[in-house]
Amino acid sequence: MDTQIPVRPSRRINLLPYLLFFIFILINFTIFEIWPYQIVAYIGLLIGLLLSMSLKVANEWEKAVVLRLGKFRGLKGPGHFWVIPIIDSVAYWVDQRIVATPFLAEQTLTKDTVPVNVDAILFWMVWDPEKAALEVENYREAVAWIAQTALRDVVGRSMLSDILSGREQLDKVLQDVIDTRTEPWGITVQSVEIRDVVIPANLQDAMSREAQAERERRARIILGTAETEIAQRFAEASKVYENNPIALQLRAMNILYEGLKERGGLIVTPSGVADSLNIGSLALSQQMASEKVQCNSTNDSQAKA
């Protein structure tokens, strides 16, 4: 379904001229009931009719484009104003408020030949009522068609990924294109906002699988990087343990201790592993070191005494 051109709301009928005309009728037929004075009554009716046709009222947000014998005479309003009946005519009532016009482009091919439906909304206003009334036949309809054409053109020159990820940039491009085309008509574009981009269902599934595969690839890269860093740390630690066997044995004992602490219970190790750890010699070395420290402290205390 193509864009529906917005229809201008109908103006509210101004009852003041008709009320004045009705009052003139009552006055004339009440005062001039005698036949000789009926001519005066008819003249009064004619004057009342002309006055009622001369009075016009424009709303606060409107400008009336007045033509005199087919030529532009000027802009009137807001408020009441007078025109010369038959000679003057109000050709157009221009609304100067900001107007919101929705528009869309259906089954439009992107640069990478993907059919998409793009839904957008245009905010614009008339800054020169004279140009809007005289330069284009129906400025509301023209703005809607230009917006739709510009949207199709911009979508056709863009990749699908750019449309999905760069909506703000696309909004700016659309605003510049539409504003350039409507400026000669006295119309300025306030903003353009893309509300929705619909792509085919099968393409949505493919893009979802692609995104999932991309996330898995990144996860594996991160895991591989972590493994590389861990291997480098192990290589550095092996060099330290190579020059210090006692440190290696202490590390092995710490691993056993951490396993017992976290999981509880017993850990059964082969006798060869226990011998390689040399737990007895380590305990003896620690005991001798402790006794040596105690002996040194005793000697120091005796020397002070």
UniProtKB/TrEMBL annotation:
It comes from the Bacteria. Keywords: Membrane, Transmembrane, Transmembrane helix. The keyword Nucleotide-binding does not apply. Residues 53-211 form the Band domain. Pfam families: Band_7. The keyword Membrane applies. GO terms for cellular component: plasma membrane; side of membrane. The chain crosses the membrane at residues 12-31, 37-58. SMART domains: PHB. Belongs to the band 7/mec-2 family. This is Peptidase.
